Amino acid sequence: MSDPVQADETKPASLSQKAMSGTAWSMLSTVSRQVLSIASVATVARMLGPGAYGIMGMANILLGFIVNFRDLGTGTAIVQRISVSQQLLASLFWLNCGLGLVLALVVAGASAFMASFFHTPELTSILCAIAFSFIFSSAGIVHNSLLMREMRFKSLAIIDVSSALLSYFVALACAFSGLGVWSLVWANLANSIGGTAMYWIASSWRPIFKVDRAEVASVMNFSLNLSGFGLVNYACRNADNVVVGRMLGQADLGVYQMAYNLMITPIQSISSVIGQVTLPAFSQIQNDDQRFAAAFVRSSCIVALISFPVMAGLGVVADPMIRALLGQKWIAAIPIFQILAPVGVVQSVQTLVGLIYVAKGRTDWMFWFGALSLAVLIPAFVIGGHYGVAGVAKAYFAVYFGIMLFPGFAVPLHLIGLKVSHLAKALLPQLLVTIVMSLACLAWLQMLVHFSISNNWLRLISTCVIGGITYLAGLRVAKPPTIGYLQDVMRESENPMFRRGVKFVQLIV
User: N or C: which end of the chain has fewer CB within 10 A?
Assistant: First the structure.
């Protein structure tokens, strides 16, 4: 039997240095992918319009559901476990390849039903084509997990950006060629194939032809509960899309999904920077609750330092932003995004609590909380659907803040002995400064209206500048402890750029 692959027994400072270096690369990756996302919205979405995105939204309802079964949580199990054997890695590789083939057949088999359900015949061929992506992506799951386990975030960043760049150019070329919704289909396949190929190049691990049932069984309790949560979380995230698509049609679904994606993309981008880095780090300190709780508070505060002003600011500038970037076709998305933006402010931090469940190995708690959330959301969306797209967005807002918010924090924080009030107190300074910034931006927009200034780009850019200045000024006055957290981790970084950045942070705040 081959030797197990042990987690690095690093000292706290060394772990912090790895985490900080990882944050730098993850941040670079995220910023680059955000730029590509904006470019895609400003070019591809403008050419294709809501109809094409609505059709892909319908396809994504099935695809997103199937993705939850892609690795049955085994990829995360590789990152979370203290040690993994070569037999386990090989067994999970072949398991995932088999699952990829099965899931591709399921997607192709279900394509006709989805086309009939949404009254959209072209869904059949679209889903059959995208089904191949499961075969390709499944072959890269173990390699991706090993890169993350080894905290090789530079390699992961390069792969993520390269895949996104390839996907964007394929979509753009196809859109210019007049392929319509198929531009998004070919972009999806290019991303899967390119990403998997690069994971294999970056990772030196190669599978052996062996499947050890005992090794697979050893991770199944953790993995199946995590996969089960992914399933119910997917249902929570897409129940509103099903309601809108079924009750209101593809055009309204395209509008709703655009607004929802504008809300969720910054959240996922910002939290993924921290989440990708902190999961392997948290897993190494999973048995030290005091250290875990302190690290979680620091991570949450650093996320909030960026995500609070970004999400609130996007809500404030929603009108000029959507008009300038997307054009007149997407004006209906403005009020939807404004309703969802406050949810995004809080969810930008709440997305991190999933790391507690995973690092502590309590994916069973994670699954059951997700199931209860789904039971609350579905009837709310159905009721809201009778009042149009805005009704669905308002239902999401009401249920989230009225029912789900407090337990969504309290349950996972209990696992590390952290009170909600302690986390809230740590986040309060960033929240107050964000509120002041938002009020200043709203006042500025009203002044532009008073002086009849209607150029959308001028309104967008000037408001962003005012917001940035106000937020930095507010941080100088409030001096939240988060600034100290940020400076500490920057000092520990092995990257000279980050160490020099400490002085820059001191200068601006």
Answer: N
Token pair listed for 364: 């069973």
Q: Over the stretch 327-365, which tens digit does the pLDDT of each residue have? A: 788 888 899 999 988 998 898 888 888 888 888 878 788
DSSP letters, 224-269, are HHHHHHHHHHHHHHHHHHHHHHHHH-HHHHHHHHHHHHHHHHHHHH
Residue 81: C-alpha distances to residues 145, 286, 293, 443, 474 (Å): 11, 10, 20, 51, 42
Partners of 84 in beta bridges:
5
Pairwise CA distance, residues 397 & 405, whole Å: 11
* Helix or strand run (H / E) with residue 24: helix 12-40
493: phi then psi, degrees, rounded to nearest 5: -65, 145
- In this prediction, residue 220 carries a pLDDT of 77
Integer Cα distance of 310 and 316 in angstroms: 10
For 228-240, the pLDDT digits (tens) are 787 787 777 778 8
* Cα angle 497, 498, 501; round to 5: 90
Assess contact for 307 and 349: CB atoms under 8 A.
Answer: yes
The whole-angstrom separation of Cα 33 and Cα 24 is 14
Give the Cα separation of 448 and 316 in Å (integer): 14
Q: What is the pLDDT of residue 1?
A: 40
d(CA 439, CA 470): 10
At 143, which amino acid appears?
H
- Spans of all domains in the chain: 1-211, 220-478
Q: What does the pLDDT average to over 161-165?
A: 87
Nearest to 7 by CA among 302, 283, 395: 283
Judged by DSSP in three states, 507 sits in helix
Phi and psi angles of residue 384, each rounded to the nearest 5 degrees, phi first: -65, -30
Q: Which residues contact 265 (CB under 8 A, 6 or more apart)?
A: 34, 37
Position 101, amino acid: L
Q: What are the two backbone dihedrals, phi and then psi, of residue 452, each rounded to the nearest 5 degrees?
A: 60, 35
Cα–Cα distances in angstroms (integers) from residue 347 to residues 2, 78, 191, 312, in the given order: 43, 27, 27, 12
CB atoms within 10 A of CB 9: 9
H or E stretch including 77?
helix 74-80
What does residue 6 show for φ and ψ, rounded to 5 degrees? Answer: -85, 150
Name the amino acid, one letter, at 446: Q
Interval 458-483 mean pLDDT: 89
Q: Smallest Cα–Cα separation from 205: which of 268, 256, 141?
A: 141
Q: Is 469 in a helix, a strand, or coil?
A: helix
> In degrees rounded to 5, what are phi and psi of residue 114?
-60, -40
User: Token pair of 224, please?
Assistant: 């199946």
Strand partners, 5: 84
Longest dimension (CA), the chain: 77
Query: Mapping DSSP to helix (H, G, I), strand (E, B) and coil, where does residue 63 land?
Result: helix
pTM to 2 decimal places? 0.67
The C-alpha atoms of residue 319 and residue 81 are separated, in whole angstroms, by 46
